[in-house]
Amino acid sequence: MALEATYNSQTVEKRWYSYWMEHNYFHSEVDEREPYTIVIPPPNVTGVLHMGHMLNNTLQDVLIRRARLKGFNACWVPGTDHASIATEAKVVAKLKSEGINKEDLTREEFLKHAWDWTYKHGGIILDQLKHLGASCDWERTKFTMDDDMSASVIKVFIDLYEKGNIYRGYRMVNWDPEAKTTLSDEEVIHIEKQGNLYYLNYKIEGSNDTLTIATTRPETILGDTAICINPNDERFTHLKGKKAIVPICNRVIPIIEDEYVDVEFGTGCLKVTPAHDENDKVLGDKHGLEVIDILNEDATLNSFGMHYQGKDRFVVRKEITKELEAIGALQKIETHTNKIGTSERTGAVIEPRLSDQWFLKMKELAQPALDAVLEKEVNLVPEKFINTYRHWMENVRDWNISRQLWWGHQIPAYFYGDGKEDFVVAESLEAAVPKAQKKSGNSALTASNLKQDPDALDTWFSSWLWPMSVFNGIMEPDNKEINYYYPTNDLVTAPEILFFWVARMIIAGYEYRGEKPFNNVYLTGIVRDKQRRKMSKSLGNSPDPIELMKQYGADGVRVGMLLSSPAGNDLMFDEDLCKQGSGFVNKIWNAYRLIDGWEISESLEETDTSKIALDWYRAKFQMALAEIEDHYSKYRISDALMATYKLVWDDFCSWLLEMVKPGYQQPISGKTFRSIIEIFEDNLKVLHPFVPFISEELWQHIAKRTPKEALVVSQWPELKPINETLIKEFEFASEVISGIRTIRKQKNISFKETISLHIINNDNATTTFDAVIQKLGNIDVLTYVSEKIEGALTFRVKSNEYFVPIEGAINVEEEIEKLSEELKYTEGFLKSVQGKLKNEKFVSGAPEKVVAMEKQKEADALAKIETLKTSLAGLQ
RNA sequence: GGGCGUUUAGCUCAGUUGGUUCAGAGCACUUGGUUUACACCCAAGGGGUCGGGGGUUCGAAUCCCUCAACGCCCA
Fold this sequence. Notes:
Isoleucyl-tRNA Synthetase, domain 2, alpha/beta, 7-stranded mixed sheet, RNA-binding, about 45% helix
């Protein structure tokens, strides 16, 4: 059946994806082969596919498909993440739009809504990945809140608690007043903002004097519990031991001394608000100050805010400034830029807030994970991220793992009293009872006396176990799957989550299996638009991936994504890249259409041209294959693609097919045809990871294949020794062909018009490719001569001279000019080479090989100059 | 403020240990070409003081110093 004239990506994609699924090629079971494993960075369960996922998953699919072809037992585990904050925020918003407040629901009721939401919107993203061609083992699809996954999280929490690594602490945390939860340090984004510095006067108790402090947050004065001065600051000696009066609330507070105060900043007097600033908290602890929290959990003021109670902190800031001014306590306002923390998820300005939270001690746990990367047990690609990783790991801080949310894994701590330590940690309420009885010494305690901590765990506290828990490696540490698939091979993810996720997975891996979770971490860039803006929903600058695939085909988009995405560098995405990708797919399609249309004749002998052309391409293919393998080994995926692209487009289509192509309506020899097909099949194999759909389509078109013979499970071509001589000889021949084409163009000789070519073979060049030169140059007669041909057009390759006699006079002047230019260039070149060779330091200092090469260059140049000079002499 | 990185053609990027005619690729651009697979094509061509300055070396895009611009991470 003849191929359609144009490639229809949609039909083909549907056909082969279902064929692959039907034959279960993506499923992996433990067997005797060597495994090659990737776990997907689980996307948000209710998320939709964006360009970052496209890039990331294309890369993973390329790696896994190649591994499959190389004979590994390839296993790519897909799944999703419950994304605590993001999902809960969405559910809360949805309920609100229906007039329901989260506060009015019980935990169980709320969770039911959240699960409904998850069932409704969940997993869309995984289906979208199928459009891309992702060859995941869908039978293994996991969700971080599946029962077994949750059990793993709880088990690890209990274990770490029992080892003393998890503790409960009253600490200053990052509070997101919008999501009403704490955030880890990593989830806070610091941005520079223009603000003000307010200079406020405080009266000194028992005198008419005042002191002036500078603050960026005047609303927090209501929480002030001290003024601090530097004991070495002579300006304030008179204040020592006195007390100050906070304006508006008229609280009398001590003036304390501490060298912490920067005498240069502001006025040198610092107001201390321990409840609302991390540094002030430290000062407060040191000096035993009172802690006055003036904020509610939504960042409105509480009763300490007096007449501002119930108003938002930013509103209060404006209003209190006016009041301070009215009572004469405001001295001046200066503009001031400072960095403020904002929530990664909601964008809200973070409030430092004191509260009871759960923390994981990191220092000791982090050590093996730091060593693993420094010793290249785990390779970060590109290596430049090692420094960033080291810096973070060496200064790692304890991880706040609790979140004031319901959607997630509820912390398995059960309180039996109001005391800070009146709790036990257990995997269930039932298990908690005996523990609580023991700890409290109260054997009468029952389940009804216990109250589980309402907080949930940070989502990353479940995803850090991902490479282990997807194989049930936490609950059953010795099961055959975890023993076989772990450690996984490659992890493909974004540098943004190097600390959030990657580092913590390595930590967990060493803690729970004594082994790294993966060998290599390939860090991709961020997908940006042409103006270098990060693609985001809010900016609306991201194309819809599904639409993109409809327009350019999944293969086209895959190629487009990979064309310009070196590891770790941002990708400036441009739809033109997909256009180039679909152009490539079109080229492959048409190359096969040409071959497919040939009439085959078994009685025809293989021509010399075809024979040498095929030999050359086989050599060239090996050379490209070696290069491609090298690129893959270094995770230079876009380079591997480009090498494949050039092999297929330039070498196969533009050179080989043109060389073997029979004349119009002429048949091709059966032998040649079979060789071409064999070669084309190898091309399809190396193409497959990049363009799985069209490669499978053509593969299946070439011959009727059994399910076992599908391309997706075929064998990657073997590396064989490269015939470099043949490649070099062809390069020479291709220069001759270029010379002919240039002459044709310059003299307006149509390609259809045959010409003759006379050669003086000064260089002793091989005649192997003469038949090819004749065919591609449309040469009727190719002869070797010893004397130059008068009145012919000429060109030179190395020191060989080529003559094309044509009708009509040659423009002698032009010829002379052309030759003189070549001569001038060559002489200049010779001079520089001889300059080097005359330099004794060069000859003695440079390696022999380099000197020999320079000598060869000298000889070549001398020979060329000789021929140029004779030619010139002949013309003059 | 501390750390890391980047700067090469109009654009996006390669350039390994300092040494082939090393200044490259893809795209874009210019010119010519279409009854014969593909105009999503073929062929030919132009285009760069390798961010600036200084140094080491027989030899520097590559190593060192310095300045500048940009980006990222951390505080």
